[in-house]
Amino acid sequence: MQLNSVVARVTERIRERSAETRTAYLRRVDEMAARDRGSDRLGCANVAHAFAALPSNEKLKVVVERAPNIGIVTAYNDMLSAHAPYARFPDILKDEARRLGVTAQVAGGVPAMCDGVTQGTPAMDLSLFSRDVIAMATAVSLSHDVFDAALMLGICDKIVPGLLIGALHFGHLPTVFVPGGPMTSGLSNSEKAKVRELAAQGQVGREELLEAEQKAYHSPGTCTFYGTANSNQMLMEAMGLHVPGAAFVNPGNELREELTREAVRTVVGIVKARRFTPIGHQVDERCIVNAMAALLATGGSTNHLIHWVAVARSAGIRIDWNDFSELSSVVPLLARVYPNGQADVNAFQAAGGPGFVIRELLDAGLMHEDVLTVREGGLREYTRWPGGAGGRLSWQDIGPSRDTSVVRPAGEPFSPTGGLKLLTGNLGRSVIKVSSVPQDRHVIEAPARIFDTQEALQKAFQSGELEQACRASDANGLVCVVRWQGPQANGMPELHKLTPPLAVLQGKGLRVALVTDGRMSGASGKVPAAIHVSPEAAAGGPLALLRDGDRVRLDAVEGRLQALVPHEEWMRREPARLQASQREENGVKLGRELFGAMRRNATEAEEGACTWL
User: Fold this and answer.
1) Within-domain flag for 213
2) Which residues form the Dihydroxy-acid/6-phosphogluconate dehydratase N-terminal domain (predicted)?
3) Under a CB-based contact definition with an 8 Å cutoff, are residues 240 and 373 in contact?
4) pLDDT at residue 389, as a whole number
């Protein structure tokens, strides 16, 4: 299938934009890959320290027999459901390595925090920056420099992007990512959302809400909605960094273990093959575009408009929101998974899953097929379904969609576009995810109501003030602006707690929208939300010029975010300032003091909110 002209144009534009930085990156990768093996290159004391804990026969393999040594970087902890299954993985991986005549060592661990636990608390201010901490921890783990390949064990929101950024800074190593899989389905996401909205209105109490939440989040594995964690897994498949089809197999079954063992076989195969493919060569501009297309086709998390900018930069590649927006104009929406539909990720997997989506995009010319992956068969291997047991994995064709309410072919999509829109105007640049926003809410024009914290918005809702203001306006609604939520202000927390109250107001027929320099991860769902507004208010961005009552137009059809204020008046305004007391509060409690340098040095959201540049 001939490549779509827009996909080709965006890819070429990225290639040209990145020519200098990509060339410099690949030069460093090739210089590192050309060195002697670690156990041959390092001093004797260094080597002795590196392998002191290995059994004697395995020391012999590494040093004398010169067998490959695999570094394992793990995000295991046993308080987070998604990462608890990783407790057993190192032993499984080491056992498979021994069967293959190679060695494997846990090179290090990286932190893994859960936005679901920290949501709405000061700890959420550490969440985005934890990605860069994870990248640095990955670098520390691999810095012992005695590894011929790497396996990355991580699955959730900041963990996979952080591991990937870290791995790309060791781009000379062949690397395979090893997922753990989603938990089995519990209380449906839509039923859980209903209880949350009832709780927001005070119609059910804490006991009923906690019961619903525990029925939804009930066992090991990732949460079953299609948020950042599960979007990560979709993108890993589209980039060819997984064993094919590994993303959404539940923890604890025989197939999960076989896929985990296959990760060792896969990475060892790259090391020993004539077709040596380190991750730095594999992740090129075509690979990045494939990830972007997969994100758009599945209505994935908007967090990746930040994370994948940072990932690309780690490989010397420059992408921006224009690239996402232009691809969104031709990549159709092929999946409806909560919050963009009723199905959870288990239903998505059962209907065809990542393999179905990748096949449809390849056949429609919307993904690059001529890319390197961790498998010799290339990206087509990722269009098949894994099965088998007892050491005998096999893959078969997925066939047609098993449920067209969940996944559809490219010729009959849910929407002809990816549902992601770049918004520009005198309020800056932002993005909106409209794949689950009702058509009649794609344009909202109403007075602005300014909030400096998410708690202030929640208080206004609970007191009834917000609803009264909506009904009193000539637009029968408000544009709620929550500013001082960007990387430099407080670390850019997700604002999930704002979804239930705004959804309640919209459900009452009021025309509400959210505008913020913070994040929503796509969890805004049916409420129109212009997020990631850049430049952020704390960096002198135009949200600091807005005043209560200013008329704001959010237009997801034309791609505009505009304060309808006369230009002369707008230019005369002095920006509001983040109050010293609030800035101070943003920097203390729950370890936030340690992240002051990250807040000061963070780039804008569209530049990846990077702290290492």
Assistant:
1) no
2) 68-381
3) yes
4) 66
Q: What is the pLDDT of residue 426?
A: 97
CA distance 347 to 364: 24
**pTM (predicted TM-score):** 0.95
Q: Residue 588: give its domain's CATH number.
A: 3.50.30.80
Count helices and strands in the chain by DSSP H and E runs: 26, 14
Torsion angles phi and psi, residue 257, rounded to 5: -65, -40
- 448 and 323 within one domain: no
Strand partners of residue 109: 74
Q: Is 330 helix (H, G, I), strand (E, B) or coil?
A: coil
Q: Give me the pLDDT at residue 67, please.
A: 93
pLDDT of residue 463: 96
> 120 and 237: one domain?
yes
Q: Looking at residue 285, which CATH number applies to its domain?
A: 3.40.50.2300
Give the number of domains in the chain: 2
> Please, what is the average pLDDT of the chain?
94
Asked if residue 446 and residue 332 are part of one domain, the reply reads: no
Q: What are phi and psi of 13, to 5 degrees?
A: -65, -40
Q: Give me the pLDDT at residue 193, please.
A: 84
DSSP letter, residue 429: E
Within the chain, which residues score under 50 in pLDDT?
A: none
How much is the pLDDT for 523? 58
Question: Does the annotation flag 44 for ligand binding?
Answer: no
Domain boundary among 397, 431, 466: 397
Q: How far apart are CA 347 and CA 333, in angstroms?
A: 17
Q: What is the pLDDT of residue 588?
A: 86
- Tell me which residue range forms the domain holding 539: 420-607
